[in-house]
Amino acid sequence: MSNPLVDQMVERCDTVEVHKELVRIVQEKLPAEEELYDLAELFKVFGDSTRIRILFVLFESEACVCDLAEALSMTQSAISHQLKILKQSKLVKSRREGKQVIYSLADAHVRKIIDNGLEHIEED
C-alpha cells in the first residue's frame, strides 16, 4: 500500500523497468556488507557537534585534554569521553609527553572528510 505523503515527496518512475546491466555493475562494485557497516559507523562518529569541534581544534594544533576543554568551554571529563570515541574510530591518536597526553589527528584523511562535508553543505 502506498503512502500518500511519501508519494508526494519522492518522484518515481511511471513504469517498472529493471535495467539489468546497471544492476549487475552496481552489484559487482558494491563493497562487502561488513565494509558498508564500518563506513556507516564511522559517519555516525561525525554526527556529534562536540566531536566535530574537537577535530577543528586539532586541525590547528595538537592539544592535551586541558587545552581542548578550555578552548571549547567544556569539562575535561566531557572532552575525554569524546576523545575516547574519536580514538576508537581511528580519527585521533595520542602520545604521552611527561605527565601530559597530547592528541592529534590520526592522519590527513580526517581533514579531507571534514573539508568535503563543509564543501557539500556550502554548495548552492
What labels would you give this structure?
single chain; mainly alpha; Arc Repressor Mutant, subunit A; 3-stranded antiparallel β-sheet; 3 strands; 61% helix
Would you write up a description of this structure?
There is one protein chain. By secondary structure, this protein is mostly helical. It has a domain of 63 residues: Winged helix-like DNA-binding domain superfamily/Winged helix DNA-binding domain (Arc Repressor Mutant, subunit A). The chain contains seven helices and three strands; from the N terminus they run H-H-H-H-E-H-H-E-E-H. A three-stranded antiparallel sheet has the order 1-3-2.
User: Terminal Cα separation, in Å?
Assistant: 36 Å
- The top-level CATH class of the domain at 62-124 is Mainly Alpha
Care to count the β-strands? 3
Helix content: 55-70%
Rg: 21 Å
* CATH fold description of the domain at 62-124: Arc Repressor Mutant, subunit A
Number of distinct helices: 7
Poorly predicted ranges: none
Given helix and strand content, the structural type is mainly alpha
CATH architectural arrangement of the domain at 62-124: Orthogonal Bundle
CATH superfamily annotation of the domain at 62-124: Winged helix-like DNA-binding domain superfamily/Winged helix DNA-binding domain
Shape: elongated
Series of secondary-structure elements, N-terminal to C-terminal: HHHHEHHEEH
Please state roughly what percent of the residues sit in beta strands, choosing from under 5%, 5-15%, 15-25%, 25-35%, 35-45% or over 45%. 5-15%
Average predicted confidence as pLDDT: 93
Biggest sheet descriptor:
3 strands, antiparallel
Order of strands, widest sheet: 1-3-2
